[in-house]
Design a protein that fits this description.
mainly alpha; 59% helix; 3% strand
Length: 417
């Protein structure tokens, strides 16, 4: 971050507002209040007696007081006194040194393509138009007396679409995940051995955190975790929970990442690499797979799925818009509010994410469209021989790969079949 200050590569000031509070949350008067101390309250290791346990707790307390809290305090002070005051007022990557080339480089990296910024922006606008038409079909099906935007406002404000407690939201996410587990054999020949759990995003980071996230295990005696954000429950609509669950858990990130890690025939760099266009493209494609196996129970769930697809299409528009085409933060927020059913809180959190992480948000829709295109090619090329489970195996069996490599793999799959 100091090097960034020296070279002009700093974050925009607008995305750093309140960010120091996320750091402050790790600083305590007592070591026992720290999240890092929690494991010492319940030491479950064979042959560690009560005297040794007490010594470990004393050592942990000293380390946290003398080093951990001090490190976080130093970082907090650095943010307040140096970094945030020297952050940039312009939100665009284009305003960074050699900014246009930098953004194109990031776009190439995250999409694993050579698409131009203009082509990506135009693709996003076309997808927004198509998905909006499908949304209108759902509104008509419900015989709602109003336009799409009035319907979206109704979804944002009616309490029946929101959980009243954190437990209710977690239980509903868990139910959806378990229901999808039972449908996986319809879609896959091979399933991962690693299980996963459903837990809330940790409270100390939830306010600035995304709606949901998959957390991979770090050891072979751990599960993966599907994290659900229970902060601001009135901003976490239940009608979007099915799409979120399918993306983050199964058949999305947990299934894809776990299968990759369990492929002993691949070198470790292939098993553990995560290429955004492939992984996030698969996650968005997984939301679509739920439609094919009957996971969207009613028109509201289907609208939630379309809203999530629209969210990723809008990313192509607002990311390129803000970083290269001169869009303001507010223009991007307004575009997302106009076209998705995301809450205003979620939209602002997402827009700030795109500002702070140029071009990463392009990977989702580009990856999903590529997988869908390859599936259509396989269906046309194989006709009656097409097997969806075999196709999914061909997509996933090489781990996370660039989209150009995925295209080569699927062409080989079609020829071999």
């Amino acid at each position: 971050m100091k090097k960034g200050i020296q070279t002009g590569f700093v974050q925009p000031k607008v995305v750093l507002q309140g960010f120091e509070d996320s750091v402050k949350a790790f600083i305590h008067d007592s070591a026992e209040d720290s999240v890092f101390y929690a494991p010492f309250n319940n030491i479950q290791v064979a042959n560690v007696d009560s005297i040794q346990q007490q010594k470990l707790r004393e050592q942990a307390s000293l380390v946290m007081t003398d080093h951990v809290f001090t490190a976080y305090q130093n970082f907090y002070d650095f943010l307040i006194t140096e970094y945030i005051p020297k952050s940039k007022t312009d939100i665009a990557a284009k305003s960074l040194p050699k900014g246009s080339a930098y953004y194109q480089n990031r776009s190439d990296f995250y999409t694993t393509t050579k698409m131009s910024v203009d082509d990506i922006h135009s693709l996003g606008m076309a997808e927004v138009k198509r998905i909006r038409g499908e949304m209108q079909t759902v509104v008509d099906q419900l015989e709602y007396k109003g336009n799409i935007n009035q319907f979206i406002q109704y979804l944002r404000t009616d309490k029946k679409f929101y959980a009243q407690t954190a437990d209710e939201l977690i239980k509903q996410a868990s139910y959806i995940a378990k229901k999808m587990d039972a449908k996986l054999p319809q879609l896959f020949n091979y399933l991962p051995r690693t299980p996963y759990g459903v837990e809330p995003v940790p409270e100390n980071i939830a306010a600035k955190y995304t709606t949901g996230r998959y957390i991979s295990p770090t050891r072979d005696d751990q599960p993966g975790y599907y994290w659900v954000n229970t902060y601001a429950l009135d901003k976490r609509p239940l009608y979007a929970l099915t799409a979120l669950t399918l993306h983050e858990a199964v058949p999305g990130h947990h299934l894809q990442i776990s299968l990759s890690r369990e492929m002993k025939n691949l070198p470790e760099v292939r098993r553990y690499t995560y290429i955004s266009a492939f992984g996030e493209g698969w996650g968005l494609y997984s939301e679509f797979l739920g439609k094919e196996v009957g996971m969207y129970n009613d028109p509201y769930d289907e609208f939630g799925r379309l809203s999530y697809e629209m969210w990723r299409a809008c990313r192509l528009v607002v990311d390129t818009g803000m970083h290269v085409k001169g869009w303001s933060r507010q223009k991007a927020i307004d575009f997302m509010l106009e076209n998705t059913a995301l809450s205003e809180h979620n939209v602002k959190t997402e827009i700030d994410r795109y500002i702070s992480w140029p071009a990463q948000a392009l990977s989702y829709k580009i990856g999903e469209l590529t997988i869908k295109k390859l599936r259509k090619q396989a269906e046309a090329g194989l006709a009656e021989q097409f097997d969806l489970r075999a196709f999914h195996h061909a997509v996933l069996e090489h781990g996370s790969v660039p989209l150009s490599v995925l295209e080569e793999n699927i062409q080989q799959f079609i020829q071999q079949k």
